Sequence to fold (240 residues):
Amino acid sequence: MSSTAPMLRIEHLQVRYGDLIGVADVSLDVPTGSVVALLGSNGAGKTTTLNAIAGIVPVSAGSVTFAGENIAGQPAYAVVRKGLALSPEGWRLFTQQSVENNLMLGATPLADRSRILRLLERVYSVFPRLSERRKQRAGTMSGGERQMLAVGRALMSDPKLLLLDEPSLGLAPAIVDSMYDAFANLHKDGQTILLAEQSVDLALEAADHAYVLQVGRTVLEGPARDLATNPDVQRIYLGV
Fold:
């Protein structure tokens, strides 16, 4: 893909839960400044792959090289300090806390606390709705607003690489469009993104490059515009 080393390189990743295999063999590259999509039907291993990168689930085999260092097996708190943040599927917000408190918790890994205000303003410029709701309790927000808050909280650690897990899941089409507009703006500003998504059309429109997973394996990859017209993506790998 690129002559320089990618920001993230995964080689032959395997994740096991006892005898169960969550991910069997996933390899992928995420170049600096790119948006890379991870496609696959439900159960293909997308979430497990992102959780393994973020240090949330243990890696059984293979390597996860981020900025030249193999971070496989490092705990989540160490991984996020290296500049890698996950916006998880299902949000996992502190529902009794205000929007702004949730965002501030996302800044916990920052060594330089003087940057928090600037990062907060950046999140509010990406998602103006959060600025309007800053004092509101997270638990009283709509699904779309909670998704914005989950992404905003991940951005508060000022990540070099932003991992997005199923950001369109269960949201109304208009909300999804505004989320993806926000991701496009982040990309324009130089944010590197790895996006796991069930919605093929959405992901391929947003991404530069894509990988297709099937039962925990990378089975297809290529430039997003090529995969968008590849009948195998629709027919074989996504069961459409």
